[in-house]
Design a protein that fits this description.
By secondary structure, the protein is α+β, with helices and mostly antiparallel strands. The protein has 26 helices and 38 strands. The longest helix has 28 residues, at about 275-300. It starts with 13 loop residues before the first helix and ends with a helix.
Length: about 1000
């Protein structure tokens, strides 16, 4: 034990280290010092480049401790935990002596340090927990005399050591925080200590003592355990606490992410109740000791650069460990490991069914009680009303205007009204109490809804409830705030007895009623305190719903995304895709924002189907009105079918012969129909499609889908009527650069010649006007015009697939083909036509369309129906009224400029593709070789979701971030997206 004085490192230089290598190990090597608080470590590089690590132990460590470490290394290896071997010296001994110092040399562990890795993904945090579990499992049987030694890092003496070292903290405010936090954590540990198992533990299994290697997902994963200098006997759970504490500084503003580490440890090394309760007090004590020790180390060893560099990180660990209340963090741990010690049971005090709502609290109340729904799916918040600052006040005022006596804002509801937009952090949306809002009126008596002991301080009455059943070992307190101010001492009350008064007023009034555990942290709030969704697991145990006691229905909500995912997986086929490793449950959208069930908002950068933006009121109104009048198909005569068709034709280039519209349900159907039209009009079968394209899922549209990402066997399994031409991708295609159109066109001409020679005359050429599946790659200048000319010269027709890229998304042009100054023979459209309602269409000439009659009549049950036409017209009206094509030009340019600016700072960005609001950020590991960074792209999407941005991957290689948001995207949201991508590329993923 160092008695709170700290340790000075051995006085050994790099020259000495090189001499030791030669004298003791017979190798000529250069030495580079590595960091350590109390020992000396050097990286040795031999003349042949071979590396090893030299360690000079502090003199306080004896041979028994070193022998125990060697035994622990053997135990680790036997258990499959990767550790570097200790290399024997010239005399065969593992421990060498040099000038009185004990010296050891170990294998070099290749990899990267994790301590400076920045952000750690959930999978990595979990792997650290699994590694800590593997450590205690491997060392559990180990017995050795050298394990039982006093040392300052033994968490059993952490409070004692922190108290002794704290005077070295020069910052008085920080010193006070450290001492208070350590004392509180020690007090929480005191009743648990006797029940905590003791065994051999590593003692310092942290991100600084584990080397990482890159996985297939491009992330840095823990791999090799280093430095057993703190090996000894200790609480088993301390191994986890030390490991978990070292995770905190990677994202210190989000300490709850470390629950991943704790849960993973528990899966492999189950925690007892006492151990689970000890985890966070030990995390706090470890953090406090790190801060105190760091300051002390600089005080006695001022030249220790390692200690100086670690000061900021150690304080970040402490700040994160104490960011949320200790009791709350303990509850989060208990939830994570599945320990439920019971909670508030309102069964015996629930109001009788025949009793009027709130009668138990307000016995003289007359009039109706209304519960307001402020939640994500509330119809009262449609039309973006939830974004108004006074949205809650409006809902309450409307209820009161309708004559209700009390308007209730319920406990446990995720309030959409408190959601944040364009924010990396989720809003505090979950209510921990119930609010009762009253109109102006006379004084009213407030009664105890149950028996107990009541105290009133000012406007708050606290009723400690008499519970007949278990309360989880705690008292439960019913708290009423907003009463007429009084000071009254604690006294017993029975149910129905007066506990206070609601004051008379000419203005609306409010009472807040909550039930909380007696140890729940105090929360200052105007009305109900609210917490973010990630804190709900603890606060749903620290508080309880007062609704049953008050005779109200319960509206308590929880994040059920995991259960909903399980439900889907039980009924979906493996081929049915979903987004994200842990998808949020999205139940509302507004404009370019998506909202999950916890009222977390996300900037939607992928839903080009909702071209106008989500939940556009004019489209919703149009659909609602049509559903109330007529629902039939295009075989009947009604006005909207011709009107909608004429509106679509008016969007075609002036003077073109694109004068006929055929309406269907989807882009896949549109492409399928376009192929049939081309084959019927030409009397030929062969369709030329580009490599790496996606066109749909019907038999015909899938046949011309050549993307190996969507179908790994696509190129080898196309039917004989499909010919695949080279994709003119000037960034990673066969020919690269600005002026490559002629080269691609020459290859296309060769293809057409061969088809003709083989008797496979071409019927059609099918191409997206912008390579959407590739991530918005703009075709080389002149390519589309040249290709169309060749196809027409060969007797074929040209099909422009505008399903993804058309309909105003280009900004500078309504259709993608207009950028190339060409006019196709057939145009396929779909996704944004109905703003979420399924509409697709084909626009062509009468000559081509009439050819279909040779194959029979054409009809689509829903394509061209009364409903789809009315919705389609409403979409076109809204696009014009909202100026969305212009917005695509302005915001698209702003977004592209911001993304290209990131490319100047982040080499992972190879190129930014696209036009308007169809962009693609192509990620590469090397800009010269253009090696796709597919794993990085997928991981970046996961991190962006955490930060409130929905962006996904596309392209043949799945290494392009596709950006095709609703066209109403704002400058503020565009800037937020750029800022979050910058953050992810800087901090990691």
């Amino acid at each position: 034990m160092t008695g709170g004085v700290g340790l000075v490192r051995p006085d050994v230089s790099t020259a000495d280290a090189a001499r030791i290598a030669l004298d003791c190990y017979g190798i000529t090597a250069s030495a580079q010092e590595l960091g350590s608080n109390q020992d000396r470590n050097f990286l040795l590089t031999a003349e042949d480049g071979a590396k090893s690590v030299l360690r000079i132990d502090n003199a306080v460590f004896g041979d028994a401790a070193r022998d125990a470490q060697h035994a622990a290394l053997d135990a680790y290896r036997d258990a499959g935990v990767r550790v570097p071997a200790v290399l024997p010296g010239l005399d065969g001994a593992l421990t060498q002596r040099w000038n009185g110092f004990a010296v050891r040399r170990s294998e070099f562990a290749p990899g990267e340090s994790l301590v400076d890795a920045g952000y750690l993904a959930p999978v990595v945090l979990a792997e650290f927990g699994a590694l800590a579990a593997a450590s205690v499992n491997a060392l559990a049987p180990l017995g050795h005399p050298g394990l039982d030694r006093p040392q300052m890092w033994d968490m059993r003496v952490a409070h004692e050591q922190t108290t002794a070292l704290a005077p070295s903290i020069a910052d008085a405010a920080l010193r006070g925080r450290v001492l208070r936090a350590a004392a509180k954590a020690d007090a929480a540990l005191a009743p648990l200590a006797a029940g905590l198992p003791v065994q051999a533990i590593h003692g310092d299994l942290t991100d600084d003592n584990v080397m990482g290697t890159r996985g297939d997902d491009s992330r840095l994963h823990p791999h090799t355990v280093l430095d057993l200098g703190d090996l000894g006997l200790g609480w088993r759970v301390a191994e986890l606490a030390v490991c978990a504490s070292s995770m905190l500084h990677h994202e210190p503003e989000r300490p709850l992410r470390v629950i991943e580490t704790i849960a993973a440890f528990h899966r492999d090394a189950p925690l007892s109740v006492a151990e689970a309760r000890a985890v966070w007090p030990l995390v706090v004590l470890r953090a406090a000791l790190l801060v105190a020790s760091g300051w002390r180390q600089l005080e006695i060893d001022g030249d220790n650069d390692y200690a100086r560099e670690r000061i900021a990180g150690e304080q970040a660990i402490f700040d994160a460990a104490t960011l949320l209340p200790l009791v709350e963090m303990t509850e989060h741990v208990l939830v994570a490991v599945g320990i439920d010690e019971g909670g508030f049971d309102a069964t015996d005090m629930a109001a009788e069914a025949e009793v009027a709502p709130l009668a138990s609290l307000l016995p003289d109340l007359t009039g109706r009680v209304a519960v307001i729904d402020p939640g994500v799916e509330s119809a009262a918040l449609d039309g973006g009303r939830w974004l108004r600052e006074d949205a809650e006040e409006e809902l309450i005022a409307e209820a009161i205007e309708l004559g209700v006596a009390v308007a209730v804002m319920p406990y446990g509801a995720f309030r959409l009204t408190r959601a944040r937009v364009d924010d990396a952090e989720a809003g505090q949306t979950w209510a921990t109490a119930c609010e009762l809002h009253f109109p102006p009126g006379p004084r009213a008596r407030v009664a105890a809804p149950a028996s107990g002991r009541v105290t009133q301080r000012g406007g708050t009455a606290r009723l400690i409830l008499d519970l007949d059943g278990p309360g989880g070992g705690h008292d439960w307190v019913l708290e009423i705030t907003g009463l007429d101010a009084e000071e009254r001492r604690e006294r017993p009350v029975g149910a129905g007895e007066t506990v206070g008064w609601l004051a008379a007023a000419f203005e609306p009034r409010r009472l807040t009623v909550g039930i909380r555990r007696d140890d729940a942290p105090e929360q200052q709030a105007d009305g109900s305190a609210l917490v973010a969704a990630d804190r709900v697991p603890a606060w749903s145990r620290l508080t309880a719903d007062p609704a049953p006691v008050l005779g109200l229905p319960s509206f308590t909500q929880h994040d059920d995304a995991a259960a909903e995912l399980g439900r889907r997986e039980r009924i979906f086929a493996a081929a049915q895709e979903r987004y994200y490793e842990r998808p949020p449950q999205i139940e509302r959208g507004w404009q370019h924002h998506l909202i999950d069930t916890t009222a977390r908002t996300y900037v939607d950068m992928v839903n080009n189907v909702a071209g106008l933006g989500h939940a556009h009121p004019k489209v919703a109104d149009a659909a609602d009105r049509q559903l109330r009048t007529l629902a039939t198909n295009s075989r009947f005569l009604f006005r909207d079918l011709a009107e909608y068709s004429e509106r679509l034709l008016a969007l075609m280039p002036e003077g073109s012969d694109l004068d006929t519209v055929l309406l269907v349900n989807s882009g896949s159907e549109a492409v399928d129909l376009a192929i049939r039209l081309a084959q019927a009009a030409t009397g030929r079968r062969t369709v030329v499609a580009l490599r790496e394209a996606y066109h749909g899922w019907t038999m015909a549209s899938d046949a011309v889908t050549t993307s190996a990402y969507d179908n790994p066997f696509a190129l080898a399994t196309r039917p004989d009527w499909v010919h695949i031409a080279d994709v003119p991708n000037r960034f990673r295609g066969t020919y690269r650069g600005a002026d490559v159109a002629d080269a691609y066109l020459a290859d296309l001409a060769t293809d057409l010649d061969r088809l003709r020679e083989d008797g496979r005359e071409v019927a059609a050429f099918l191409c997206e006007s912008i390579l959407g599946n590739a991530g918005g790659v703009v075709l080389p200048d002149g390519y589309l015009a040249g290709a169309y000319a060749q196809i027409r010269a060969a007797g074929g027709v040209c099909i422009a697939d505008e399903v993804q890229v058309g309909f105003g998304r280009m900004g500078s042009a309504f259709w993608g083909f207009e950028l190339a100054e060409v006019v196709p023979d057939i145009v396929t459209i779909a996704k944004p036509m109905g703003n979420g309602f399924p509409i697709g269409g084909v626009i062509t000439s009468r000559r081509i369309a009439d050819a279909l009659s040779t194959q029979g009549q054409f009809f689509s049950s829903a394509g061209g129906s009364t409903l789809s036409c009315r919705v389609g017209i409403a979409v076109l009206d809204a696009m014009a009224e909202d100026g969305l094509q212009h917005n695509a030009t302005v915001i698209g340019a702003r977004l592209a400029e911001g993304l290209r600016g990131l490319a100047d700072r982040h080499p992972l960005i190879g190129v930014v593709h696209g036009e308007g609001l169809y962009l693609g950020v192509e990620l590469v590991r090397d800009r010269d070789t253009m090696e796709p960074a597919a794993a990085e792209a997928a991981a970046i999407c996961e991190r962006m979701r955490e930060l409130g941005v929905i962006v996904l991957t596309t392209s043949e290689r799945s290494n392009v971030l596709k950006i095709k948001p609703p066209l109403c995207l704002t400058a503020q949201s565009a800037d937020h997206v750029v800022a979050m991508l910058d953050r992810v590329l800087t901090e990691g993923w």
